[in-house]
Specification:
This protein has a five-stranded mixed sheet, with helices on both faces. By secondary structure, the protein is α+β, with helices and mostly antiparallel strands. 42% of the residues lie in helices and 18% in strands. The protein has two domains: 142 residues, 2-Layer Sandwich (Chloramphenicol Acetyltransferase), CATH 3.30.559; 157 residues, Maf protein, CATH 3.90.950. The chain has eleven helices and ten strands.
């Protein structure tokens, strides 16, 4: 598993769409004549669905894009594939099962029969897949924000709700994207307290308390301004956590700050930090790309703060 530069792949545009989607998912439909496969499975006494899964895996393994998957705000290349299949459990429920693909049909059939049988019986096939999950944990490190979590904003909202915490946002260059992604999650109303788009310097002064002297000395895109924005948002809203973002999304440098420079601030009892993010606008990486990546980084830092913040109801969380 390794990080891939989206601009160097044929998935650059798709990666941008994925990053901007609240709950990204792509479904493809294609009609196929499977009559030969039915005959083959009957002749050799194999399960038809197993053969179908193996053929899908075989075809996918020859397309490099199937080995690429967004994790956080990065594009990760994997070394193995798994085929997901629907399984009817004995209790009448419908479940799914991931079968690691192997070009060896006999090996794939053994894995398929073992894993689907476990799901049919209501058993957890996790122990077989645990080594793969642990490998991903090690490789992804701090960038792994959850397992079976659709995206950063969902992980953030679930963490906030579980701890009964609230969050506020103060945005400039992202223009409300952070707030939009948070509120796209069902139940976010229980965690999202307040949001402001302070695009102009005047609004930063009036709403968030950024002084004119600070703007004159350091500029709107600076660690000092980002920190005051986060603190001002938290003070105004009374939220447990506040996240801010200010930067230059292009198309031209401003105040001596290059295109792609974004500064994220977070203020909370458990974590107060400012981080500069440099997002070079090369290839297909334009203004929207910079804003989406900046929003993802803001959500990621907010999630770290939420994890460190003590729960209101349960101080041990």
């Amino acid at each position: 598993m390794r990080e891939i530069d989206p601009a160097q792949t044929r998935r650059a545009a798709a990666f941008q769409l994925w990053m901007s989607a609240p709950m990204p998912m792509v479904t493809l439909f294609k009609t196929l004549d499977v009559t030969p496969l039915v005959r083959w499975s009957k002749k050799y006494h194999c399960k038809f669905n197993m053969m179908m899964c193996w053929c899908i895996g075989k075809a996918a393994s020859q397309v490099e894009e199937f080995f690429l998957l967004p994790v956080g705000d990065k594009l990760i290349g994997y070394d193995r594939l798994a085929v997901n299949t629907v399984v009817a459990a004995k209790d009448g429920e419908i479940s799914t099962c991931d079968v690691p693909f192997s070009p060896d049909l006999a090996q794939f059939e053994r894995d398929y029969l073992r894993l689907t049988a476990q799901v049919e019986e209501g058993e957890d096939p996790g122990p077989i897949l645990d080594p793969v999950v642990e490998e991903i944990r090690r490789e992804a490190g701090e960038w792994l924000y959850g397992i079976n979590v659709g995206n950063l904003q969902t992980a953030l909202v679930h963490t906030l709700l579980a701890k009964e915490l609230t969050i506020a946002t103060a945005e400039s260059c992202t223009g409300g994207l952070v707030a939009q992604r948070i509120t796209s999650v069902p139940g976010a109303s229980g965690a999202f307290e307040w949001g402001a788009v302070t695009y102009s310097c005047e609004t930063k002064r009036r709403v968030l308390g950024v002084s004119q002297r600070m703007l004159d000395t350091y500029g709107a895109v600076s660690v000092q301004t980002a920190m005051v924005m986060a603190r001002g948002a938290r003070r105004k809203s009374g939220a447990d956590i506040a996240v801010s973002g200010t930067g230059n999304a292009g198309p031209e440098p401003r105040e001596g700050k290059p295109v792609g420079l974004v500064v994220i601030g977070v203020d909370s009892d458990a974590m107060t930090t400012v981080q500069e993010v440099h997002i070079p606008p090369t290839g297909n990486r334009g203004r929207e790309y910079i804003r989406e990546i900046a929003a993802s980084q803001a959500l990621y830092l907010a999630l770290q703060a939420a994890k460190l913040t003590v729960s209101r109801e349960n101080p041990h969380q």
